[in-house]
Fold each of these.
Amino acid sequence: MTIDIVVVMVFVSFIIGGGLSYVLWDRALRSKKDKLIRDGQAEAEVLKKDKILQAKEKFLYLKAEHEKFVNEKNVKINLLEQKVKQRESSLNLRQEEFQKKNNEIEAIRANLNKQLEVVENKGVELEKMHKKQVEKLEDLSNMSAEEAKAQLVESMKEEAKTEAMSYINDIMDEAKISANKESKRIVVQTIQRVATETAIENSVTVFNIDNDEIKGRIIGREGRNIRALEAATGIEIIVDDTPEAIILSGFDPVRREIARLALHQLVTDGRIHPARIEEVVAKTKKQIEEEIIETGKRTAIDLGVHGLHPELIRLIGKMKYRSSYGQNLLQHSREVANLCAIMASELGLNTKVAKRAGLLHDIGKVPDDEPELPHAILGMKLAEKYKEKPDVCNAIGAHHDELEMTTLISPIVQVCDAISGARPGARREVVESYIKRLKDLENLALSYPGVTKTYAIQAGRELRVIVGSDKISDVEAESLSYDISKKIQDEMTYPGQIKITVIRETRAIAYAK
């Protein structure tokens, strides 16, 4: 019984305690809730005040910007109003001036009308007086007014013609003076812009050797090697006491170069005998031909001249081994080409055509057959043969006045050729005449039947003539040497004496197979 009472009492106390705690917890929650609401309201008031302040600041800023913009606009409007007022005042002044000038013009016009009326009245009187004077003059001169007028017109025409001719002559003289000055300026400017070295070819080449023992091998037994070299190359080979040197003498630079290269190859190889000499000389000639073509191609590329026929390129390369009055022909042609291009550009002409004509102008000096024609005409024919343009052909053919010039390029080539040739130190007349005499000497002997090769050696003091053994006998060879000497004596002028040597050799060739 007591236990149940205790349990009941505990249960009742528990319920009472739970209710009290709940009441306390509820009160705590309500107080916390009220506090949160109060805090939220306070923060909201603060935010509200901040936003109101920010809005006021933004408003004030925008108001200031607007007032600034309005002020600037007002300033601009005031400036424009001032300008308008100034223009209005200036227009008013101009209008007043215009009105004054208009009044003056009206006054002048009224005055002129009055004067015109007076002049017209006087004109009528003068017309009457003029008619009376004309009638009196006609009566006195027995000539009508029309006839007198025609006579006066004719006299005026003659006077005008005389004055016009005098005026034209003055203009022509002035034009000639100015043209002369301008042409001198162009020529001087052209010469100043071209500076090239002058290469003077001589008639001797020195071949250096390592020791003098090689001289004996070059001479050979009883001189057979040196004779074979001279016969194959046409160059006189002088072996004297000059230490470590052999002299190659000949007026033709191509032959000298062939002899030099062949001799160099023979000495380097060590095998020196007549058959080997002929083989090496033949190979060297072929090598020189290839070098000539390469020189022509390189020259055309350097000058920018394109589309040349291969034969023209070969002839340009041959110019390297030719000289004109002591002046290297290739160097002269390059110089003339550059001069022509510069002068053509100064005159507003085609520089490429001018340079092409300048390069080819002396092509007639290096043909293979050398017919009896002036080199300018021969060069023109070669250019026509290899399809060069008419302007270029005419410039080549007319640069020594053998033909009439038909284009403006022709006189330019002629002038530039003269500039290059007349330059101090460019040419030597003596060397050219000497080489021409040696060529004539060789050609004279070559004109006889049976002669295969001719070489002028020892500076023209000896002429070696090689004949075919199957065409000329020993007796005929002796007669031929006499005939050639007699013809040279009768037809040519030369210093001292010339030795004519006719060489006739028999060769037997067989092949072992």
Note: The two ends are 162 Å apart (CA to CA).
Amino acid sequence: MIVYRTHTCGELNAKNKGQKVYLSGWINKKRDHGNLLFVDLRDNYGITQCVIDNKNLIFKKIEKIPLETVVQFEGQVVAREEGTVNKEIKSGEIEIKIINFKILGTTKELPLPVFSDQEYSEEIRLKYRFLDLRRSKIHKNINLRSQVISFIRKEMESYGFLEFQTPILTSSSPEGARDFLVPSRLNPGKFYALPQAPQQFKQLIMVSGFDKYFQIAPCFRDEDARADRSPGEFYQLDIEMSFVNQKDIFNIVEKLLNNLFNKFSDKKVKDKKFPIISFSDAILKYGTDKPDLRNPLEICDVTEIFKRQDVKFEIFKKLVSEGSIVRAIVTKKTSNKPRSFFDNLDKWAKEEGSNGLAYFTFEKNNNEICGKGPIGKFFGPEACREIVKISKAEIGDSIFFACGKRKNVEKFLSVTRDKIAKDLNLIDENLFSFCWIVDYPMYETDEKTGKIKFSHNPFSMPQGDINKINFEKPLEIKAYQYDIVCNGVELSSGAIRNHIPELMYKIFKVAGYDKKSVDDKFSGMINALSYGAPPHGGIAPGIDRIVMLLANEKNIREVTMFPMNQNAQDLMMNAPSNVDDLLLKELNLKIIKQD
């Protein structure tokens, strides 16, 4: 029987001195010192330094072996000479004196170096992903991902949850992102959809009498790529519980995430009990429902100030009279900052598509608060006092203003808040700062059509007495919907579910679905809820985003084994691809070429 190795490349240490060993792996790096050749041998577990002197008959052969060739070394464990110990690797106390070798796998010329983590183009990295995955940083990220998933499974089981698998081929959903469709051969003209999430199935599990469910669930959405979102597929920790309220779910998730982040990172979790922020407060204070709470800066509304007689900043006053709003950000003790700090922010704002960033600093003149800076002269003492009261500013602070339509101002000041915090070095990179965003509106207005649509999850329970909900004012209805956010990254959405069929019909009617549409689209769900459904709720934190945070990566591609590119293409496997005409015929499909 062939023995490829007696030990791994991350296993040997000084205790193994004198032993004869076999190691197998990839040649990671070579260093030729003339009389000695050092070879770093790499496998999944680490790197071991191997050495051979030029008197050995096989020296020349090993010298010619290309990097990334798979080899087996037979050798003896020896202690490294004093001063050459490498504390950065597990096997750094020893090296292997090579006695013999075998080539187990040859290699062609490499399109990118493996021993280095230097940046390469996305096209090269994804086309040769199997080589990219050999590189140290990304290899560690993928191992971390596996460890995180294993830990989550054990934790969830310890909390009394059972893991179930839900169907991959299901029906299309009218809400959410675009579906990936799968044609049915046995049912011509009909299609399955890959699940955007196991939403309906996990609710049906609760209706079936199971109390606590979880799953590391694959989800499929035909969405455009972003740094924190893969185009096509992703994984989430799907959770559902019966006989729970919002607080019960928060307690479970907080316990899990505290344990998970404390185990896999040296960074500190800022608050063991995560702050709870209403959606409306998040939009007002941070301009987004995904706030980075490591950033201490907050936004305040100062629209009313620009209706005062002693404010002469006519540009903003005119816009306010036409329905615009004004919001502001205060920075502490920045009056001593050089002019370049303010000019650079103004330049940045214009590059972002704004007209600039109006500002002044607070100072005292004859015991009166006044503004110093480009627009400070337009504000009288009483107006300055009122701004200080609203914004909680102090002498020596600066204030930055943005004026315009509500959504535009919110979006702009959200990124401005992040930009200023970065420039002032206000964000502690050694923290994980979680928060809950709650009280989402059940509905919103579609900007294109003007019609009422669901703002979040259509299966959510509305807040308040269900017998007194005023469906004539749908935009005032809030739901038991919640998001969990960490360092500005949305990890998950969740909700307490609507388990009452009669209420379901009313809620969908507001969004334009009649009873027949609901019965057709959600026949399995609505039928099941009619046979005694428990109150239930859940959440589904994204595995990819969790690992991205733990690995301190900015792009989800760095923690995904085989990601697609920005155009949802797998460059390594050439997917999506054309299919044979015979297969199309079996599926009753015909490709129509667009002009």
Note: The chain has a mean pLDDT of 94.
